[in-house]
Design brief:
Surface presentation of antigens (SPOA), Flagellar motor switch protein FliN, flagellum, FliN_T3SS_HrcQb, cilium, 88 residues, cell projection
């Protein structure tokens, strides 16, 4: 039987985006604020290995920040289904 214990998936959550020149980024110091094109109550995009897989909402639980999944996205045609048998 196949085990999934050693498979790593990089999960990212995107609340918003902003573009700026590298020289501006390099001048930023500790405590600098980068404005995003989103608000705190907007949906976030959830990525698995840089592929969008879901949407969610930011959830605050005491001093922790979490994400509540509100929608699971269907796989697009660019994602190949996993093969379960036969040669690769």
């Amino acid at each position: 039987m196949t085990t999934f214990d050693n498979i790593s998936v990089d999960i990212s959550v995107v609340l918003g985006k902003n573009e700026m020149p590298v020289h501006q980024l390099l001048r930023m110091g500790r405590g600098a604020v980068i404005e995003l094109d989103a608000h705190e109550d907007d949906d976030v995009q959830i990525l698995a290995n840089n592929i969008p897989v879901a949407r969610g909402q930011v959830v605050l639980q005491g001093d922790k920040i979490g994400i509540s999944v509100t929608e699971v996205l269907t796989r697009g045609p660019h994602v190949r289904p996993a093969r379960t048998e036969g040669p690769i």
